[in-house]
Amino acid sequence: MSASIGANTRSLIQRDSSSVWHPFTQQSLWPTDDPMVVDRAEGMYFWDTDGNQFLDGVSSLWVNVHGHSVPEINDAITQQLNRLDHTTFLGLTHEPGIQLAERLLETAPDGLSKVFYAGDGSSAVEAALKMAYQAHVQRGEIRPLYLHVAEGYHGDTLGSVSVGGIDLFHDKYRPLLLTTAMVSSPGLMQSGQDREQRASQVLQEMRALLEESGDQVSALVIEPLVQAAGGMLTHDVSFVQGARKLCDEFNVLLICDEVATGVGRTGRMWAVEHAGIQPDMITCGKGVTGGYLPLSAVLVAEPVYEAFLGSATSGRTFYHGHSYTANPLSCAAAIANLDLMSERETVAHAALVGERMAESLRPLAAHEGVKEIRQIGTMTGIEVESVKDRTGFAVCQEARRNGVWVRPLGDVVVLMPPLAIENSELDLLTSVVSDAVDTVVR
Ligand SMILES: Cc1ncc(COP(=O)(O)O)c(C=O)c1O
User: Fold this and answer.
1) Are residues 117 and 251 in the same domain?
2) How many domains does the chain have?
3) Which residue among 22, 122, 258, 282 is best mutated to probe the pocket of ligand 1, counting the most ligand atoms within 8 A of its Cβ?
4) What sections of 118-175 are H helices per DSSP?
5) pLDDT tens digit string along 417-441?
6) Is the beta carbon of 155 within 6 A of some atom in ligand 1?
7) Which of 125, 128, 126 is nearest to 114 (CA)?
8) Which terminus of the chain has a smaller tally of CB atoms within 10 A, N or C?
């Protein structure tokens, strides 16, 4: 722990260590890894309990859009709180839930016409997988297989893990999971291959699988353009376009998981817009509420929805939902977030943020300690050479000493600032991280 740590912080860390189990955290290392206790946040910054200020370089794990403590979103939540805190969405409805669905569909690609709410990204993916299977059953076909992509990540519930492809996170659970078939990652080029060739090779793999057992496959699940948790692996749009064509040919539903890429992160509202395709379902979460409250959703194409219509006794109902489905406070935050995004043209701003980041990081790409910088829009991964145990973590700790908070995925240092970040803050982010890489990876 650092020497400047105050008595209050020390006590909180001790209490934390004796009662809390953190996600994605090796608890035996946690107390000695200089844990940060966050006290408050405003704009692009947050402060720890010792008063130190940090730039939020990963949007509080890829969720924040306009910064923290945004007056318009704070007001929307407060007003909603004073009117309706929560009711079930099972057999009831409310205006924030209706309005948010309308707003999401206004932004969505053509053909998506219904919104099914869930809680976190994982639960949206879970719902989409079940929907895809049931839709086929109700059209008279049993298709118990899912197709997915190596290095993909779709969350931590067992259905989402089934369509994941990151050994570190998913391998242990394989005996428990749904039946799937996996194609290679279109973002992992083989030597001499360009991005288009790689996309075409993986599409051929996909075709071979579909020719063999396409009539068993309910859905293909992809992260369009960026496999985020896989290390910000980016691929060519032709992969997404080719996947759409194959799904059409083999009557397989295409689920585009935009939990990470959606809501402006790639410089478009939805990553599929880069490819100009219409998915059968988009799963979204994270940035929908501006990074304030949990809420996710599946945006569904009309033919999928129609497969669920029937009489009360038809057995066609989607028996799936959660206690806090469409929580009105989350909906109010999301509506305020989308309002601000359209007023401030946040998606166009995010595209500019991406361009400036690419420019500022160009010198770093030539650094001998950097293997590759991958980026689409504001989603950026700096893969560093492994020079010691947990090199990526060491780079992030060095950045933290200089007032910037970023988090690694192994030896990939991720930069994903709030979309509304201004130039001076962005320059601070890229310069501190560049210096941190230089200090740690020499
Ligand atoms: C593409 C993708 N899908 C699903 C998830 C899971 O979302 P959540 O952590 O909200 O369950 C994530 C989380 O990072 C993600 O990146």
Assistant:
1) yes
2) 2
3) 122
4) 121-138, 158-162, 167-170
5) 999 999 999 999 999 999 999 999 9
6) yes
7) 128
8) C
CB environment 204-233: b (16+ within 10 A), e (fewer): eebbebbeeebebbbbbbbbbbbbbbbbbb
Give yes or no: residues 134 and 149 share one domain: yes
C-alpha to C-alpha distances, 79 to 84, 88, 276, 359, nearest whole angstrom: 9, 19, 38, 42
Q: For the segment 373-429, what is each residue's pLDDT rounded down to a tens digit?
A: 999 999 999 999 999 999 999 999 999 999 999 999 999 999 999 999 999 999 999
Which residue minimizes the CA distance to atom 4 of ligand 1?
A: 154
- Same structural domain, 160 and 122: yes
* pLDDT level of residue 3 (50, 70, 90 thresholds): low
**Cβ atoms of 62 and 286 closer than 8 Å:** yes
Is the four-CA dihedral 240, 243, 249, 253 of positive or negative sign?
negative
DSSP 8-state symbol, 231:
T
Q: DSSP secondary-structure letter at 306?
A: H
Q: Is residue 405 part of a domain?
A: yes
